[in-house]
Design brief:
With about 375 residues, the protein is of the alpha/beta class. It has two domains: about 130 residues, Response regulator (Rossmann fold), CATH 3.40.50.2300; about 160 residues, Heat Shock Protein 90, CATH 3.30.565. Helix content is about 50%, strand content about 20%. The strands form three sheets. It has a five-stranded parallel beta sheet, with helices on both faces. A five-stranded mixed beta sheet has the order 7-9-10-12-11. Helix 7 packs across helix 11 and helix 9 packs antiparallel against helix 11. The longest helix is centred in the middle third of the chain and has 52 residues. The two termini are about 50 Å apart.
Length: about 375
């Protein structure tokens, strides 16, 4: 095997014929078109050649020893890597049966021997142009499909955003307004315990509204590319300890124990604000779905160049069919917590975006009725 024309042109043609004279005749005609040409003199060698190099067209003799052109063409069409290369048969046969057999196994055309220069050039040029047109069309279709998917995701994002504003953000404010109105109207008639009860409810609603608003702002900024990303060496132990401290009051109200096993000397390379948001949301999620008397445990383990973190609870768990819905924007999935806490699912979507932005992965493992574990990886701090 060797190249007969080393000019760096776009199209590359393989000529397969057991007759060197026929190869020279075809190559001599096509040489004036500037194509890059290679040749093989048997079918087995041709198949090996095609699987190791890229060709735009194959001119294939039918009558060859060991493996004829029909068998070569059949094998090429059975291989996903070579099935789209157009094959033109070179043959002295002109009977309809031989031609039909060739078309049935995937050939695009026939050129009869002896070769007529004008016909050979025209047929080769036509099928090369058709191949190029198919490639352009395929690329265009792929771009359209990609754009269609982007539009679907944008619509899902828009629908999610408006749903949160119209329902989820409105709900805590309705509670705040009705609660404060009740205090204003009946404060003089209420004892300290009842006043404390209303204030605690107002405080909880305020925190929920603030957390939701914070997630909305962070999420909208990430969607528009406005959120800054400054990866650096950070202590996960310190970040998690701060989030645990902020969560202690909510945990106490639900009688939940939080066990933090992360050392202050556990370092990762990531953006501190993004990772803080991830831990905050995973902790909020765990508290929401853990029953009174339950436990939340935070661990870390080595994963090569990464560290794997887990936030695990012994709460209500998630059905296997629902796990894949957790991190998807185009699926509305959220359920009330064990104390009827409301959720939007936005927090987990934000976690996925921020973890992946910092070159990590996030996933969930769960047994329905037994508890869940949300795990994510981050590159180690060096």
């Amino acid at each position: 095997m060797n190249d007969m024309n080393d000019r760096d042109t776009y199209y590359r043609i393989l000529i397969v014929d057991d007759s060197a004279k026929n190869i020279q005749a075809v190559a001599g005609i096509l040489k004036q078109e500037g194509y890059r040409m290679s040749f093989d003199q048997n079918g087995i060698s041709a198949i090996e050649h095609v699987t190791s190099a890229k060709f735009d067209l194959i001119l294939l003799d039918i009558m060859m020893p060991e493996m004829d052109g029909y068998e070569v063409c059949k094998k090429l069409k059975e291989n996903p890597d070579t099935q789209d290369i157009p094959v033109i048969f070179l043959t002295a046969r002109t009977d309809i049966e031989s031609m039909m057999k060739g078309f049935e196994i995937g050939a695009v055309d026939y050129i009869t021997k002896p070769f007529h220069a004008g016909e050979l050039i025209a047929r080769v040029r036509t099928h090369l142009e058709l191949k190029r047109a198919k490639e352009v069309l395929k690329i265009s279709n792929e771009k359209l499909q990609h754009r269609e998917q982007e539009l679907k995701e944008l619509n899902a994002t828009k629908d999610k955003f408006f749903s949160i504003i119209a329902h989820d953000l409105k709900s805590p404010f309705n509670g705040l307004i009705s609660g404060t109105n009740y205090l204003i109207d009946f404060l003089d008639e209420m004892d300290k315990d009842k006043i404390k009860y209303f204030i605690e409810n107002i405080n909880t609603l305020s925190k929920n509204a603030f957390n939701l608003l914070q997630n909305l702002l962070e999420w909208s900024m990430s969607q528009t590319g406005q959120i800054p990303w400054y990866p650096e060496k950070i202590s996960m132990g310190s970040i998690i300890a701060d989030v645990v401290t902020l969560s202690e009051n909510n945990a106490k109200q639900k009688n939940i124990c939080i066990v933090n096993e992360i050392s202050e000397h556990t370092f990762v390379h990531a953006d501190v604000d993004m990772i803080n948001a991830v831990i905050r949301n995973l902790m909020t999620n765990a508290l929401k779905y853990t029953k009174s008397g339950g436990e939340i445990r935070i661990r870390a383990k080595d994963a090569g160049d990464f560290t794997e973190f887990s936030v695990s609870d012994n709460g209500v768990g998630i059905k296997e069919a629902d796990i894949e819905k957790l991190f998807r924007m185009n699926i509305q999935f959220s359920k009330p917590g064990t104390a009827d806490e409301k959720g939007t699912g936005l927090g987990l979507i934000l976690c996925k975006e921020f973890v992946e932005k910092n070159r990590g992965k996030i996933w969930a493992e769960s047994r329905f009725g037994k508890g869940s574990s949300f795990k994510f990886t981050l590159p180690k701090g060096k």
